[in-house]
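Weekend entry, working from home. Most of the wet-lab plans are on hold until the incubator is repaired, so I used the time to fold the two sequences that have been sitting in the queue since the last round of cloning. Logging both here for the record. First:
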Amino acid sequence: MRIHQEVDRPHPFPAKDLQVGNGSAPASLAKHWTVLDGVRGLAILLVMSYHFTMGMSGQSLYSRLLFKLTTVGWCGVNLFFVLSGFLITGILYDTRSASHRFRNFYMRRALRIFPLYYGTLLVLFGLLPWMNRWTDGFKGIEHAWPWLWTYSTNLLILLQGKWFPLSHFWSLAVEEHFYLVWPLVVFTLDRKSSVRVCLALIAIAFVVRIGLVRQGLVLSAYTLTLSRMDGLALGALLALVIRGERGLDAIVPLARKGATLSGTALILLALWRVGLRFHDSMVQTLGYLLLDLFFASLIVLLVATTQVTPLTRFFNLGFLRSLGRYSYGIYVYNSIFILVSDGLSLPARVAAWTDSVAIERVVYVALATGSTLSMAWLSWHLLEKHFLKLKVYFESRPIVSVK
C-alpha cells in the first residue's frame, strides 16, 4: 500500500562553534575557523530566501529567474547538517580523553540549544489562547505539543503525512538525536571504527530514502532522522579523516575533484528535472547525497586554504558571519513570522494597500526579513549569550592527536 504525504514546503535548522585549542593541537585544527561562520550565514540566507518567497512567481524573465533560484533555498538545511557533523565530531574527538567528557558535551549543547528552543515553546504556549483570537496561523498546533516538547516533530510528520505549525522544528529534532547518540560512538570507538560507522550511516540513509520515496512518503524522506543522517555522517567523516595520519592537506585534491564532479552532477540533475525541488524523487534519492558531497568538499577547501582567495573573502564577509552568529534564532523565528503573517492575511492586506503585486512582494520580504533579524538579534543579546557564558563551567581540555 502506498501512503502519499502532502507536499507543500520543507523546513530546515543550526550548528555551532568549533573552538579546539590548547598547546598540543596541530595549528590547522587548533583554531576557530571564522570562515565557517560565513558558511553558516549562507545556509540560513538560503533558508530565508526560500521561506520568504514561497509560492511567489513573476511575469518578467528576471523575476521568474529570481524566484526559480530561491526555490533551491531548502538545500541550506543540507549545508547545516554537513557543517554540524563536521564541527561536533571535531569537538568530540578532540576531547575524547578528557575527564567528564560526556557531562561537559551534553551540558554545553543544552546551554546552546535549550534556552531558545524551550523558551520559544513556553512563550507560544502561554500566548496561544490570546493569539488564536486574531490569527489562525497556529491552527492545529494543539495535537503537536507533546511532539514539540520531546524533539519528535519529524515522527509526527511521518504519522500525519503533512506539515503543521512549527513543523520546521523537524531539523532540530534530527540534530538533537545526533547529539544524543554520536558521543557514544566517538568516545567509545577508535578513529578508524568511527569512520566505518560514518560510511555505514551514509549508505543506510541513502537506502532508507529510496524505500520511503518508493512508498510515497516524501516528507518523511526529507525529515526522518535516519533518512537524513548522511549529511551529518559525511561531515563527521571529514572531521575524522583530517585527524588521521595524512591530515587535512592530503584530502584537498580529493575535495577539489569532489566539488567539481558533484557540482556538475547537480547542474545536470537540475536541467533534467527542471529544477531542484526537495520532493522530487531523483533529488531526494541522488540529489541529497550530491548536495552533501558538494558542501563537504566546500568545507574542506575553505578550512584548508591559508591564503586569501575570492572564495574565502566571500565567506568572511561581515554580513554573512553576522547571519551565522544569529542563525539559530533566525531559523526558529522565520517560520513563526510566516505563520503569524499568513494567519493575519498580511500579504493580501499589503497587496490591497499598495495596489501592486510587485510592491507587495518587496514589502512582505522586507517585513519578514526585518522582523526575523530583529527577533534573532534580541534573542541573542537578551537570552542566548547569557546562557553561553555558563559553558565555562563545563570545559574540556581538547587533545588533538593523530591515531
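Second, folded right after the first finished:
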Amino acid sequence: MKTNDFSLKRIKLLIHRQWVLSAKSWRIAMIAATGINFAISLLILFTTQNPANTLQSFKVSMLITFSIMGAVFASEAFKELQEPNTSVTFLTLPASIFEKFLTAWLFTFPVYLILSYIVYRFSIVLLYVIAKSFFVVDFSVGSESWSSIGTLFFVGFIVHAVFFLGASWFKKLSFFKTLLVLFSISMLHNLWLYIWGRLLLPVNDLAEKEFAFNGIVISNPESIVWGLKIFMLVVAIMCLITAYFKLKEREG
C-alpha cells in the first residue's frame, strides 16, 4: 500500500526499521575500523615515542577511514532495491517515495555522521589518556572549534550527496561505479584545464609541473573560496534532487 501523505510517525518507524537492518553491519565496521587504526597508532606511539605526531596521524587516518565508510554506506542506501527478495518488501512499504528517500538520507548522513564523530572524539581522548600515562605530554586535545566541525559536516554533505546519487542510479556495485565516474570526470576536467591553459595562457616550468600563470593576480582569495563552496553546495543539492527522481523512476 502506497500513500502520498507525509507522516513524521512513519519516518520514525522507517528509521527504526533501517536501524534494525543496518545496526549490526555498522557496529562491526566501526569497531573494526577504529580498532585497526587504534592498534596501529599505539604501535607507532610506543615505537616513535612522539605523542603529538602520533595523535595527529591518528586523527587524519580516522577521518579518512570514516569518510570512506560513509561513502560506502551512502552507496548502499537503497541496497534493498538491488535484491529481488528484498526489493518487493521495500517497494510495498506503506510509505511515500519521499518518506523512503528522506529516511535513507537521514540515516546515512546525519545519523552516521553524528555517530562516527562521537566514536572519533572518544578514540582521540582515549589515545591521549594512554599517551599521557606513559609519556610527557605538553598539549591537550581540547574540543574541536565550531568552524572545524562545520567544515567536517560540509565536506561530509558534499561527499554523501554524490554517493547517494550513485546509490539511486546504479543497480549493482554503486560505490565502485560512482568512483569510476568521479575519476573519469576528474580526468576530463584536468585535460580541459590543461588544453585551455596551453592555448590561452603563458605557462612556466611545465616540465616541472609548476603551473604559474603570468599576469594573473588573485586579489580576493576568500571570495574564490566562498564561490567554490557555493558551487559545491549547489552541485550537492542537485545530486540529491536527481537521486530523488531516479528513485521515483525506479519505484515506478
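Plan for Monday: verify the second prediction. The two ends are 14 Å apart (CA to CA).
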